Amino acid sequence: MSAARVEQRGLYAAYAAGFFSLSLVPMSSLVVPLWALGLGAPPWLIGVAVASRSVLPFLLSIHGGAMMDRLGTRRLMLIFTGAGALLTLLHPLLPWIGALIALQLIVGWAQGMGWIGAQTKIARLTRGSAAYAARFSFVTTAGTFLGPLAAGVAWDAFGAWGAFALITAWGACLFWAAVALPLPPPARGDKRLHWRDFVPNLADYIQAFALMSIPGVALVVAATFLRISAFSIQGSFYTVYLQGIGLSGTLIGVLVGFASLIGGPATLLVAPVVKRVRPHWLLLASIGLAIVFICITPLLEGFIPLLIAAGVFGLGLGMSFPLLLSILSKATDARAQGVSVGLRTTANRLASIVVPVLMGFIAEIVGVRWSFLIVGVSLMAILGAAAAVIRRLPAFSA
Hints:
Layout: H1 3-22, H2 24-38, H3 43-52, H4 55-71, H5 73-88, H6 97-126, H7 130-180, H8 186-189, H9 202-210, H10 215-234, H11 237-244, H12 249-273, H13 279-295, H14 303-331, H15 337-366, H16 368-391
């Protein structure tokens, strides 16, 4: 097989991995809160259950990215995506909130490693190209449109068993996408796995956090935290609130999926717009749009206003994603792509832990409605502070 065909096959496999990996997050984020509600969990415990899937990725994403740099992306994706798919089906077999939290801890890490692998592979194959990043983002957001929509229908039609079986099948497709990735060069692929490879190495964390001295990397880490904070609202109490006002699982899936439906084409707007607007300002503006339009959800009445807000939220998320990938890839050396993705994922998972837990406790005190507004104002204040800092940095004034 020619080198060109191998590279093309690698691109298609990476696109497929993107399609099936990130979409597991909104699918789980739709089904897990509904399952927790069915188990009788109070708001604060629902927040803990949703956040638990991000604990191990928060602690181990840098280590996971470094392992991919050393041991090969494809090999580790096969291990983690296979484990994630198999463990997902245990959820309905263990109908207790403690078991849900424990499973989310492990499955969240396994699914997170699949997503790190997809990002690492596309960064290496495309070398920071904004055009390829936009295509990868488009395919990925197509998955986040279809995945939660299918999960909502499966929940309404077949209950927890149907929804978790669908997520298991989705994870199996991710595993086969990893199988389709090209084999690494022999020099890289010959290294045998050892149990010590799975033990975090302090040097990897030092290397990762040293990257924060690069302004582009620091921007991406901060922007990732804010972007995923908005996404975490959608992935936790958005579902709880919508069910509370009488929406079915299918309609909730339509709203979540519609955000991704708009977000997909929005990724393709980045390449032309970035020629007129500096990437860092476009990044912050798109994230601000996402924060505002997810946090005004309790102020809206009727399905159509909710659908419009979901679309604008998706527009902001969609435009910000390829900008994050492009800025980060250009700011880091090719040999540190896995570590840099792990660093971004750490910020991602920190937001995924903090926001659901914080919203859960706020909801216990003042109600779910006010938790949206309080968290939204707080995130916009942080975004404003980040913009003020960026204006003073020479690296972004050129």
